[in-house]
Specification:
By secondary structure, this protein is an alpha+beta fold. About 55% of the residues lie in helices and about 10% in strands. Strands 3-2-1-4 form a 4-stranded mixed beta sheet.
């Protein structure tokens, strides 16, 4: 596990390379799959989530945003709500399902063939089915737990 330290002057220090790094360097580490933690240099508090959120903020404001204003507002509404933990788990499972689907698609595309409209349609059709299955499982778990679900699924 790679350890990064954040100093009061907001600089990040990579203990493995003994050098200061930028958020862009941390983003590169994420993209390369490097496991790391960011600790406050003084208190040793884990700041990893905070740094990752900073990277997301930069990405959302600097380019083509992934989240619409409406999506962000909906996420905020779940904080402090009884469903907060359930929503976090659902989002994690959906992201993992999509990542798995991407991996399978990449494995099946010999020589890195580009996405064709037909291939993309097939990929998204499979993802939609997986999403529907996950949502049904989630709703069933809520019913079994006796939690009232305020939304009615469309048929």
């Amino acid at each position: 596990m790679r350890i990064l330290k954040k100093y009061p002057n907001r600089r990040l220090y990579d203990t493995q390379t003994s050098s200061y790094i930028t958020l862009a360097d941390v983003k590169r580490m994420v993209l390369e799959g490097v496991e790391f933690e960011v600790h406050d240099a003084k208190t040793q508090e884990d700041l990893t989530r905070s740094i990752l959120l900073q990277i997301i903020l930069e990405e959302e404001t600097g380019g083509v945003p992934m989240f619409s204003t409406s999506s962000l507002a909906q996420i905020i509404r779940f904080y402090g709500h009884a469903m907060q933990g359930v929503m976090g788990g659902l989002l994690e499972r959906q992201m993992q399902a999509f990542t798995d689907l991407q991996s399978r698609f990449t494995e099946q595309t010999p020589g890195g063939m580009p996405f064709t409209p037909e291939a993309w349609t097939g990929l998204m059709g499979g993802y939609a089915e997986q999403s529907k299955t996950l949502m049904n499982q989630w709703q069933e778990q809520l019913k079994q737990a006796g939690v009232m679900f305020p939304f009615t699924p469309k048929k």
